[in-house]
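Recall that a protein's primary structure is simply its ordered list of amino acids. Everything else, from secondary elements to tertiary packing, is in principle encoded there. The following example makes that idea concrete.
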Amino acid sequence: MSRSFDTLMATRPVILAPLEGYSDAVFRRLCRSLGAELCVTEFVNVENLLHDCRRAKRKMTLAPDDRPTAIQIYGANPDTLEEAARIAEAASPSYIDLNCGCWVPKIAGRGAGAGWLRDPEKMVEMAARIVRAVSLPVTVKTRIGWGPESDMPIVDLARRLEDVGVRALTIHCRTAKMGHTGAADWTWAQRAREVVSIPVIVNGDVTSAEAAERALNETGCEGVMIGRRAIQHPWIFAEARALLDRGVVLPPPDRKERIRVAREHLIATVAEWGERFGVPVMRRSYAGYFAGLPDLAELRAALNACPTLEGTLAILDDADHSPYAPSFAQTPSFA
């Protein structure tokens, strides 16, 4: 581990959230190159991990340059969570994060993720077991409560999690029942922060550098976590760091920069996953990467119809040499 947990938390980090299907090693490397100091893996299903599932094992494999990165695990059984935490520890992440916030019904409905919020007592007991089982720092990512809004245990829960040794708490400021609807209420992160001495990281509706700064200033939290916006606009990390560190508002990425990042992401994804999977999976990113370009519809249509890496790169080359922008060097910087 290149930096201690306390050192990482002292930097007011702008963190890449655990994003299932997105925050793999390739995307973490991309976001880190754009200013994300700290990244979290995709969710690791503990049952799959203990059954030697290849995908689960791959999720927690960290390359030497993939640091600092935390491994997030989820499950409904404290026994299997404890066993999985020991396996995760062997990968030497910066810390182990417990997913107590995923609201998706197929996960929360069986007691994993935000399902733990239906029984805060058991959630605290589970966290205490994981803390005792490993030597690495253990953190928890959660929501402000299961719901309704009148029943939010997060303030008392924060105290109790600190008492059992949890080293930091990430709070997505919606209830589990809200999913991604409604506005995140950052005041709950502030209230939790006021009653604990461990770092609290605020999450939810952080969609710009200005929002990141406002979330930190309004809550007093030690860090901010960015999820869905990073998928569409990974430049948010550079923009947030510039504003937080230097008070500088960066201009939005121009056409050249957008095509550069899309190209690098594509090449690295194909190198990691192969052409058959890598080319189509990248199509979900183009709408965000090329947002605002005057020929967005035509460019997306061409990219979505192309099945090969060579052809996709040629389309991007043509787009970069269009009347809208000058040419640029075709060398990936993060792959």
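The CA atoms of residues 101 and 142 lie 4 Å apart. The two ends are 21 Å apart (CA to CA).
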